[in-house]
Design goal:
single chain, 5-stranded mixed sheet, 3-stranded antiparallel sheet, 10 strands, 40% helix, globular
Length: 334
Amino acid sequence: MYRFARVSLSISGLAVVTALAAACGEPGQSGTGAPPTGAAGEGCAPVAGDQLVVLEDDKGLQTADNVVPAVNADVATPEILEALDAVSAALDTPKLVELNKAVTIDRRTSAEAAQAFADAENLTAAVSAGDGGELVVGAANFPESETLAHLYRIALEAAGYNVEVRTIGNRELYEPALERGEIHVVPEYVGTLTEFLNAKVNGADPEPLASSDVQQTMTALRDLGGQVGLVFGEPSEAADQNAFAVTQAFADTYGVRTLTELGQKCSGAETLLGGPPECPQRPFCQPGLEETYGLTFGPFVSLDAGGPLTKEALRRGEISVGLVFSSDGDLAAR
């Protein structure tokens, strides 16, 4: 798997944030003084700020993890695929960020957030009537998946189906259920599912088939799906993948919008990277940034995988850049 697991904030995690705040109070790192100008070879010290922004992965370090509907082949009629593709066509990453914000920050239910989005986007206008019948849409046990499942439900109901949304659990549970036809549709992620099925079909540690190219990865995914009885709709422009965020104040101070610009302007010991403890060993984390973008860093700050510790450390000016998930509701404009 390429993506890091989501984590929740615990009391011990809050203690880590507090300890970091005490340890990182130098001017330019805590927001109490002016940051340096990013002189060549020195790096770019953290800049505190409330708004977080993702730097563009312009050289394709991360695997494409666009949202895509996965369907049991026995029920994959053109009408069902058309309804699901209407959801894909309506989504992009900023809209997915807002959907996640509605649930995780504004505290709406996934069903409420999905309905509001469907109404605003006139989601069902182009959906054709199907043959009707009963369908079960599965969801993984995290809010984004549940919200996407409700969007699929809304589109399929507009096509004339009676639809139940059922939260199943992790991929190891819901993917076999999808193959068996116990559930019929699941929102999935292109690259992650490609490598999951790659290992299932081709054995442990196969040659990777997923890449940063969405269409190339979809070709591999469709081939693998054909071998296990799955069909896929069109991928959305919305993606939930590993990403690297800075504060808006940091981006403005140093003039960086892409990871290439970060590498050109901010390599050096004052640039502090934060993320999960395994980041210094993972090819899609620190080693990837070093090899693909030529970045060098000061001491690594061990936090979490796109969770509250990393985001709080960014906002408090304790790290320069942190690993997040690209569709996190915390990335919405404040």
